[in-house]
């Protein structure tokens, strides 16, 4: 196995849902020992499932997140078979502890004592449990603690609960996207702020780790998903600050460039995107479309960027007249060969089978003891001497109780057995959890 | 030292969006970021609007100003022999090098990884490109809409009877820069811990395929059961979910399913609906016909209430709901103001600029907000101060169009 950059770094992971687990996954992928602390007595929705024990017959009817079980079958222990958890669970360890009991809180403190970084997105719950930063820094003075929340830990919206979908309204993204004509109720469901927070917590904790290496001092990081994501729309806000302009969506069009859009292709619900940045690329597109389109494409109404922008409705209609006679892949290849940015709008099957991603090793096979053998997206980028490797399959609930309690925390045998009996240590959710 | 990366130097050979965003994050964390720009015109985003008062000017592009805050600008013609040599000198003293040229271009300039690491084995060398340094699409051109479409999320984004729709502005490229900053700092940590730095190959396409929206989950969901999300899919079949109009705008709500539905009924003053046989079973709560019935009830309540009232009611009822804010609303909103999020910086051409401030609040090492540099503003400072060039040598380089 190659040497990984974060070998020797230990992370306590108390994250749920999507964004923050995506971040701690990257820390684990790059070699940190990431220990998830979960509970047999509390089920955070949308983490190891929508419910702990969903009704099998309803699963195919749930949305794309909720239905993510192998063959739509939740199996005996559904929480070990849920795609959303397993995709972000790679290379992590899982233990259980009931934080509502003093023993559970003591376990967290003991783990923090031997760790470098604690990441949580429990929206204030840790504070209420007496495990806030003020307490944990007394346990471990040089701790780096990252709290990820929707809106941050201070300010009028600090208690605002929700998922990324909700926060993207409060930061302006929902307003700025969607179809131009029936803005803004055509809000779509893609949520980009979650993975942005995941990457954010990684650079934030790494910057803090470097600072600690130099100065010996730990610190607390309050990461607001909203504020983190506003940077991804930064120029919109600088434009407002400078010009008092309130930008609106342009749909698939670009404010200055044409043609720029998503065009229907041959086949059922098949589409291609094309983005032309200058006259040279426009001429390349014209040549690539071939003689059948020469007549209209040479029209002086499309001769320069300004005129293409002004006559965009007609331009888009004409281009779609051409694209709808070809498949997305044909157009992608033909236009890219001509030096024009164009790409098939891939559905999930297309991308899963994409030759480029396959050649770059984006997918790797994982044989999971309860979910079966499948290809997982793993390698988010490539490195010259380390590799993205699956050192640990996505952990079963409580899979590493033995290792962590016995080996890392040196829990005496009698205490270990008591923690099992009292419901701290286990591999099943309590039977009364739906 | 009161910034996390105060002792870190980054050589920034990027232009456009993804690379500059990566380097901007490092600058905000306190690194000294030396941005190399072409002597003629500089980073092409300097020519991209919107501009101050909509008058094109190399120093007033909102896009450039936002993406390059806190950096130092050095003009350098990398295609000239002395220009490339100066870049190698700077790389020898840097902790990280970030570049966004097309694959192969750095080698041709004599700045490829193998050559540069020779004089600096601990260097973290980050290449950000459209599709990566290898693979069948290596030389493809890209643009945000193309990445989003190929990345797989666009197909299921939008309405079923309409075309797929992209997200706002340059979202995918920003996320690629964000990931690159995460990758760079993890690798830098490895170097600090006694390892060597590495060459990181970041593909914007892969960052779309892997990390815009719930990509991992959707890809694994497909591996698990061959389900293909499309534009008819709601994230959750449960209702009410999504955007609804209200008295003074729009709100977004996540208020359905076994856990939330009873709270939503209480929030709108209709607690009896919890017992209503139409909304009794788990199956009813994801049924599209029932959804239409409930939406009518919910809408008649929403349209009578303002965004602020709904936010208040949702907080009390523990329902996930929030107002849709415009960028103007956000800029003036009391929440962001109280947190001191937007900051003002001084710029010699623009004057005072409002900038987004700390993307994360560090208790010990606050975010550094500073204006973007003028083209070539720091050329003498870096070349003389850092590399020891005399003013005579500088004027010779200037005459030879190297700087």
Provide structural commentary:
The complex is a heterodimer of chains A (434) and B (403). Chain A has 19 helices and twelve strands. Chain A is α/β, with parallel strands linked by helices and 434 residues long. The radius of gyration of chain A is 25 Å and the shape is elongated. In chain A, a hairpin with a 6-residue loop joins β7 and β8 (271-275). Chain A has two domains: 10-231 and 356-421, Rossmann fold (3-Layer(aba) Sandwich), CATH 3.40.50.10540; 270-346, formyl-coa transferase, domain 3 (2-Layer Sandwich), CATH 3.30.1540.10. Chain A is 37% helix and 14% strand. The model of chain A has no long low-confidence stretch (mean pLDDT 96). In chain A, α1 crosses α8. The two termini of chain A are 41 Å apart. Chain B has 403 residues and is α/β, with parallel strands linked by helices. Chain B has two domains: 9-212 and 338-399, Rossmann fold; 241-326, formyl-coa transferase, domain 3 (2-Layer Sandwich). Chain B contains 16 helices and twelve strands. Chain B has helices at residues 18-28, 62-67, 81-92, 105-108, 113-118, 144-150, 171-192, 204-211, 215-225, 257-267, 288-302, 307-317, 327-332, 334-338, 379-386, 391-399; strands at residues 9-13, 32-37, 72-75, 96-99, 124-129, 199-203, 241-246, 249-254, 320-323, 342-347, 351-356, 361-362. In chain B, the strands form three sheets. Chain B has a six-stranded parallel beta sheet, sandwiched between helices. Chain B has a three-stranded antiparallel beta sheet with strand order 7-8-9, with helices on one face. A two-stranded antiparallel sheet of chain B has the order 10-11. In chain B, β7 (241-246) and β8 form a beta hairpin. In chain B, α1 packs across α7 (171-192) and α7 (171-192) crosses α8 (204-211). Chain B is elongated. The two termini of chain B are 32 Å apart. β12 of chain A pairs antiparallel with β6 (199-203) of chain B, so a sheet runs across the interface.
